[in-house]
Each structure stands twice: as C-alpha cells, then as structure tokens.
Amino acid sequence: MSRWDGIDEFTAVAEQASFSAAARRLGLSTSAVSREIARLEDRLQTRLLHRTTRRVELTDAGRDFLARCRRLIDERDEALAAVQPDDQAPRGLLRMTCSVSYGERFIAPAVNAFARQNPELRIELDLDNRLRDLVGDGYDLAVRFGHLTDSRLMARRLASRRLILCASPDYLARRAPRATCPRSPATTA
Question: Tens digits of per-residue pLDDT, 101-124?
C-alpha cells in the first residue's frame, strides 16, 4: 500500500461533495472510492469527512488536509508533465489482428485513417480468421467476436451484432421446414 493511496479519491469527494460524483469523475465505483477513503482515514487515524445519507462535509482536519492534498496533486502532476515528451503522438509499432471480413469492412479503413493522423506510428494489421495467441505471437491487440477466455487479457466491447437468417420465398416453398420433430433411427427388435 502506498502512502498516496486515497488522496485522489479524498480530494475528488471533497471537491464534488459527493461520493458518486467523485466516483464518476475518477472512473471508479462508488464503493471503491468509499473504501479508499476509509483506508486513508484509518492510516491517518482521523476522520476527514462527515457523511450522512444526504450530504458529505469536511471535518476541520479534512479542510486542512484538502488544502495540502491539492498542493501535492498539483506538484505531482507538474512533475509528471515535466518528464513527458512535448509531443504525445503515438509512435513505434502497433501489431493487431482481426477476422478477415470484419477487418476489411470496418477495421482497415479506421486503421488507415488513424495511421494518416499519426505518421510516427507503424501499424501491422493481420487479417486472419484463426484465433491467435496474442501474447505468444506478439500482438498488441485483436478485434474478435465472442467472450474473452484468456484471463491475461482485457476486453472492450466495440459493437454488438445481430444474426439474421434470410431466405427467398421460392427457397422456402421448395424446402419448407417440417413442423414435426426429426425421428430417431428405427430400431428393430
């Protein structure tokens, strides 16, 4: 556990006067924010916030701590910005794989546009219907349908799809499905 843990959460709650608004701002769950602040208060052995079902208010110690936390966060953010390159453009090699038909129709045009906007980035797009070992084969990302089974990876939903079965009226007239269940093979006694 870092001595920094909980400071961003505490500052967000104090500034928003709400656990749920702070959680949205930080991209965390409300329970995660609450848990971090409880741990912070335990470490400091002092109450920073008065909580009721309707309001969140700073204690005296919380007001003093908030002012110091804001300075710490500002200094931290300035220190991080000072060592980052001025140009944040993506660079290097991005290796990705996608199924052939989806890749040709949707992914390749998006990748080409992205590559034009980021000339220092080289992109290798492997269109292949075989499932690949992303880690073993050295891919950075894959676009696939279905559920993620490899716990070493992270997934993000890009889109949903619907399957629709279509047939012409002529085909259905010739090959109309039977309403009866298929029979099991006949057995002889």
Answer: 888 888 999 999 898 888 888 999
